[in-house]
Sequence to fold (833 residues):
Amino acid sequence: MRITSFAIFNQMTRALQAGMKNMFLYSERLSSGKKINKPSDDVYGMMNAMGYKVTLNEIDQYKKNIDNADSQLGLTDTVMSTVGDILSRARELAVQGSTGTQTPANRASIAQEIANLRDEALRLSQTQFRDRYIFSGYKTGTVPFDVSFNYQGDANELNVLIDRGSTIALNIKGDEAFSSGGETYFETLDDLYNALITNDQTNIQASITLIDNASGQVANVRADIGARMNYIEKLRSTHEDRDIALKTMLSSTEDDDIAETVSELTKTQVSLESLRASGAKVISQSLMDFLG
Amino acid sequence: MSLLGLFDIGKSAILSNQVAMNAISNNIANVNTEGYSRQEVVLETTAGVQIRGDYLGRGVSIAGITRHFDKFIQLQIIGQNQSYGRSSSLNQGLSHVEQIFNEAKGLGLSNSLQDYFNSWQGVATDPEGQPQRITLLQKAKALIQNAQQIERDVSDTLKNVNDEIANVVERVNTITSQIVQLNEKIVQVEAGQTDKQASFIRDQRDKLLNDLAEQIDYTWYEDNNGYLTVMVGGKSLVTPEKAYQLSTSVDIEGNRSVTFGSEDLTSLFSKGQLAGNIAVRDELSTDTLTSLRKLIASIIKETNSLHSSGYGLDGSTGNDFFDPLQIYTLDYSSGGYISSATVNDPSALTLDEYNINFTDASTYDIINNSTGATVAAGQTYTAGGTITFDGIDVVIDGAPAAGDSFLISPLRGVIQNINVAITDTRQIAAASSALTLPGDNTNALQLFQLSQSGRADLSGATFEGFYRGIVSNVGVDSKAAADSLTYDSNLLFELEKKREEVSGVSLDEEAANLIRYQRAFEAGARIIKITDELLQMVIDL
Fold:
């Protein structure tokens, strides 16, 4: 085998090129922190990484939806809790008003408080979340109950996605939240008011049962809200677990092992240096140097 | 045998060794000349005189100059240069395209695709919310702009590839004319001399053959006179008389083809930079661009179909969210023309490309280019009549002839011409019914859920999955191209190393030879000096 100076030179420059290329790759990895810097670095890994990112993004959206559902359901629960308080106070007053010892004047003043409670309950039914009535079904621009206490909303539920293929209703329909046995709480309180004004003890007595029914319904509604909030809370923690798991997988797929890369970089550097040192010797020498 | 004969022997030694040193010096001078084959002077004894029945030589003379050259290695190098040319162009083109889809750096379509569909969830969460609706319109526009940017980048690459094809042809033409000139010189120099070689001209011509091999694949042979003939697909580019030029022509799609006279040779090339560039072009235009357009067309089709069935806050319905799909056509005919091409039923549209091929002046077939299936065969042509298939209405007029064809595609201009049709946020149809406004979000939910299920037009893949397929193809092809480039360049290096072994100049070797011939020259000179002294002695007697 004849070895020519050109062959040595070629071999040397190729080896240097290869070393420099590796240096470049390792420093690219270190500067981006990623071992996949373009699809062809690892097509399979990149496809996985893209898949993980899509799922992470989806989970992120579900978590936002859950936060949103949590706010609206929480607000609804607060409202229903206040409605419950109103009904308890109304019951106290009704019991007070039903005793035979009460004078018509006393009943009239109790009636005034009942009227206030009735109006308060009606105002609560008109609660808005982000400028929309939460007790009107899809008719979020319409007051749920008109002045004659007729339900103006519809029976629809606003569903949002909280997991793939799984939805939760954000709203409680007004006629479910504010009526029991086909009668709204406002009507019940209004009837009580009229009975107190007219000193109608029988009807005052009758309204106590109706108020008890209403309180029972409020408790049912709050139980429903509680169950929904529990459910989304559980889902939230599931999503968070998945989030962490996916981020771990994503990291192991695309993130660079910095320690390893640094050590590879150092190795390449050392071999490049020795290559340069030996190259300088080999290339510069020939028999010509010794003629003279 | 006279004393004066010694002079001649000395003189022959000086002259011959001087020529040898000339050859060595020339080798040294050309140590870095690419394609140079080292030369060596071959010496022989000059036929001598008979002395007592035996022959004694009468000095040295030059038998010839050898060009150290291995024809077999040269053949391999030409073949390998052709492979190398192809993979280097392929690698260059595909590694560029890969960067357009580099999801690792956040480039590509993935983010804007997800943002767009997530915005529908935003609207679903708050169907009356103005901010969510504004966000949706912005994200839809961002998706379109992103797709347009990608399409532009890919199209720019395609344009560069087409320009490069023209450049390759230009280089081929330059090389072939140079070969013809060298042919002439070699034949002149070598004429009538059986053992003489026009060494350095041959080196140049071999170098040109290597350069040519990097551009295209070809076959060649040399005749007895030294004329080289170069052929491509049965056509002679170089004959003993002249070089025949390749040229290029551009079709209506902007694609350059390589022609020889009136004949299209494009498909004949399988190696060299030419074939590499053609392969990149095919990959981009038939695969990458078509898939990208199909993805966007599918998003438009599905979004519009659901959106137009829903209701906006203002009670309006039947509105397209994006501009509706259109039909684009390319006319490859001599006498016919397309007077209109429209979508008659968006739901029946397949998002495939079709060809209407005329078998004679009154008969045509409709072929689905994507599946290869025949949609309708042997149809009778009526000028100005409407041809309806797969949700498309096409009207062809004029007098088409046999062999004429029309490309009918819902994809070609889809990305370029698309826009968000909705400008009034109230028209965004989140509701499924006029009766359930304004709180109904069911249509918005369904629009989001489009992204979660497979689409028949995309072979059952989801939008995201289909897009991932595009990136994956680009990545796999780029990787394969990079791998074969490494392989081909390693192999080429090994072959060049082999060539170097035979033809390359070793300075050590030349230095040693230089000393050898220097000593012989000095000794020759000494013979003359001694002969002179001897003659002087004789004269002085």
Notes: The longest strand of chain A covers residues 159-163. Chain A touches chain B through 55 residues (CB under 8 Å). The two ends of chain A are 28 Å apart (CA to CA). Chain A has seven helices and six strands.
